[in-house]
Each structure stands twice: as structure tokens, then as C-alpha cells.
Amino acid sequence: MVGRSLVVLLAALAVPAWAQPAGPVASERATFRVSVVAAGLEHPWGLAFLPDGRMLVTERPGRVRLVSPDGALSAPLPGAPAVFARGQGGLHDVLLHRAFARTGLVYFCHAAEGPGGASTAISRGRLTEAGIEGLQTIFAATPRTGGVLHFGCRMVWDGEGFLHLSLGDRMRPDQSQDLASHNGKTLRLTEDGRPAPGNPFAARPGALPEIWTLGHRNPQAMTVHPETGRIWVVDHGPRGGDEVNLLEAGANYGWPRATHGINYDGSTITEHRSLPGMVDPLWVWVPLSIAPSGAAFYVGAAFPGWRGDLLVGGLRERALVRLRMEDGRPVAEERIPLGERIRDVRVAPDGRVHLLTDSPRGAIWRLDPV
């Protein structure tokens, strides 16, 4: 019996951490196989599709790599941002400039260290065959704080050409309600990292002019609805209380004054699930969190049964979570177990879904319809 157990243990240890589910995966409205596009990535975090068919992927310790259409990984590109790679900090999201084919500019969201601690920053550089050139930090959140958690760090462009950034509360929950702090907010910036004109708190004394919304905890998923152009955020709750929110200029999403979650030790954060003047989530996960990271509305022909739905990565849940949408709101969910922590969700130009697995030996997975 001992010998058999040892054989089983050794067999389990021999399975690579990026091993995808074997055979077809049947979900409610689609059946697919999981293919490994590229493996051997250390905590991959963000992914961008380049016009020439290659992909740009970030690794949390601070590396940027190119991935060819056949899955070949480049060496780490020279010129990547210097990052604060501790705890949840490191190199996070990547976003192409809206006119990337002309400018070659790429934006990186990352944790950066400075006097007083670390904060979330955006750096921008030009992608060339030699690497990333002319990198500059164009924005750094204030205040910097000690600690290694809750950096947020997703980016999207809106229809007016402004850059939106999500920021975690850095484990200082009260800062989410403080307009003199960037932490626990979403921001609206110009492409050069300055406050965008018309931001809702720009004229308020003491308020930081970049702020677009407040009352967030640690939003690691941000996506733009393909039809309405409106921005959606999926926020980490504490123990329970993960939220899906539709952003409105100047809106307050409640954290920590209103939440469906509780502290990790089971104690109460607040008795309030909703408060006047604060926006309630459109969807909430209770009593346990899925730990959401990465989200995308599905558009494309590969999975017609998912068209228009919101796909969310589940870290704790080790699943792809599909929220069925009707009349612009989530009405039901499906959890599709995949056995790995899903860090990011991206829809390729050909309509196939790509996932990043959050592991020391992480991978890029592709969902191929059956």
C-alpha cells in the first residue's frame, strides 16, 4: 500500500503545473478543448494581442515577453519597467496605445517603490525589435504606503481616448473614501498620464483631479462593453463580497462602509450592504469569493452561446466564470472548473478565448470550440 501511494505521489508531482484539462470541457452553452499556447511563465498577469499576430505578455516578477502565433516565447525584453516585486506587487497589466500600429507605444501598470513605500504606477515605452525603448513613468499613485497587497492595476481606453486605471486600497480601507488619496479608486487620465479634462472631482478643494470613481477595494478586472462603450469593474471583496460594478463618473461604490463581505477572521466589517448615495453592485459573490482577476465581454463567432456575456477569471475558484447578460445586467452565472488559478481573460481577434494561469509555472491557454 505504501509503495502504491508513493507511485501515485510521484506521478502527481510529475504533472506540469500548466497541465490543461484533458479532453473536451462541456459548459452550459459551449464545448471546448483547452490548448496550451505557451508554458513556463512565472505568474503571467497581463496579455495584449499585437497586430502582426504575436502576443505581449507580462510576468509579475518584472519580465515582458513576446509570444509568436505558434507559442514560441522570446527572451525577456530589454527595457521593461523596474518593479516592486513583493507580495502581490510586480509587473501587472499591459495595454497597447490606441494607435499602436503608428506609435508602437505600450503601457505597463506595475507596483513601484519610492520614499514612503510602494504604489501603483503606469510606465510607457515604444515596442521595437530590440525591446522596449524610451520607457518613462507617466503616473504614480499617491500616497505610497508600506505593505505588499492590493495594487489593483487594470487599464482600458474609453471611447473618448482617455485611459482608465483601477487602484486597490493598499489594505488601508478608509483611503477608499478619501478623495486626497488615489487608493481604492478608478482614475481617468490622458494618454500622457495627466488628469483627463472634465473629471468629476477636479474642482473640489483637496481632491485629486485624476479620480473618476471611489469606494473600491482591489479591482483587478476592468473591461469595456463592446456595444455601449461603458466601463465595468470586478472588485475583490474580503471574505465574500466580490462585486461587479458599472462605472459612473463620480460614483461611490461603498467600500468599506457598505459591503457584502466580512473579515477573514469572520468578524463584521459593517452592518451595511447598501447606503444612500452609494452604488450597489450589479452582481455579488457570497458567502465565498471567487477572487476575480481579468474580465472580458465575449464577442466573436467561436462561442455563439456566450455572445454578449461577461467572462471573469477566478483565482480562488480555479475557474472561468461566465455571467449571462440580459438587458445590460448579469442575471445568472456559470462556473467552469479548469483546475488552475485564472489571472486574466482575453478574447483574441479570431474570437477564441485566451486565459493566463497564475502559477510559478504559468501558461497561456486557448479555448478551442469543439
Q: What fraction, in percent, of the residue positions are helical? A: under 10%
Query: From the alpha-carbon coordinates, what is the Rg to the nearest angstrom?
Result: 20 Å
Secondary structural class: mainly beta
Sheet with most strands: strand arrangement: 1-2-24-23-22
Largest sheet: 5 strands, antiparallel
**Total strand segments:** 24
Q: Specify the oligomeric state.
A: single chain
- Number of H/I helices: 2
Brief overview, please?
The chain is mostly beta strands and 370 residues long.
Description of the structure:
This protein is mainly beta and 370 residues long. The protein has helices spanning 2-14, 100-103, and strands at 25-26, 31-41, 44-49, 55-59, 63-67, 91-96, 105-114, 117-128, 131-140, 155-157, 163-166, 185-189, 211-214, 219-224, 231-235, 242-246, 283-285, 292-297, 310-314, 319-326, 329-337, 342-347, 353-357, 362-369. The protein has a single domain, classed as Neuraminidase (6 Propeller). Helix content is 5%, strand content 40%. The chain has a five-stranded antiparallel β-sheet with strand order 1-2-24-23-22, with no helix packed on it. The chain has a four-stranded antiparallel β-sheet with strand order 6-7-8-9, with no helix packed on it. A four-stranded antiparallel β-sheet has the order 10-11-12-13, with no helix packed on it. The longest helix is centred in the first third of the chain and has 13 residues, at 2-14. The termini are far apart.
